[in-house]
Structures are given as C-alpha cells and as structure tokens.
C-alpha cells in the first residue's frame, strides 16, 4: 500500500504485513495523492499542493513521476 503524507513531504510504501519498506521524499510538504500509470503501470505519479503555504517551495503544486516504482493494477472505468 502506498500512502501520501499530507504535511509529511513523502510517500511511503507498506508491505501486506504492515512493514514500512520504501520512502520517497519530496521537495514540498503537501503531498496529496499517488497513482500508477505509464507503460505497464510501473510509474508512480505523485501530486502535491501549494494551498495555504505563505512561501511555497518552487516545486510545490507539481506532479512528480517515479519511473519503475512498482506495479500498479488496472482499475475499471467509472460506470456512471
């Protein structure tokens, strides 16, 4: 399971046993979400925010990609 840390400047991955096994640090504090995409669903896309930051770091509010971060699963299309 991947978890985006709002005000934590990172995304963490936990094993099925609940063990922390990977941390991806980011250059801004407001990490909002992460999702797999790209060819083979192996790239992790991470979004960040800049709302409410009085002096946001330059990349705050950006989308980051970590190529080859893992293996995502295809999701069914929304049916309405």
Brief write-up:
The protein has 80 residues and is an all-beta fold. Helix content is 0%, strand content 40%.
Could you describe the 3D structure shown?
With 80 residues, the protein is mainly β. The protein has one domain. Helices cover 0% and strands 40% of the residues. The protein is built from no helices and six strands. It has strands at residues 2-5, 10-14, 20-25, 31-37, 43-48, 63-66. The strands form two sheets. The chain has a three-stranded antiparallel sheet with strand order 1-2-3, with no helix packed on it. The radius of gyration is 14 Å and the shape is globular. It starts with a strand and ends in a 14-residue tail after the last strand.
Strand order of the largest sheet: 1-2-3
Helix and strand succession?
Answer: EEEEEE
Shape descriptor reads: globular
The main pleated sheet reads as: 3 strands, antiparallel
> Residue ranges: pLDDT <50 for 5 or more in a row?
none
What is the count of β-strands?
6
Number of helices: 0
Percent of residues in helical segments?
A: under 10%
Fold topology:
Blueprint: E1 2-5, E2 10-14, E3 20-25, E4 31-37, E5 43-48, E6 63-66
Antiparallel strand pairs: 1-2, 2-3, 4-5, 5-6
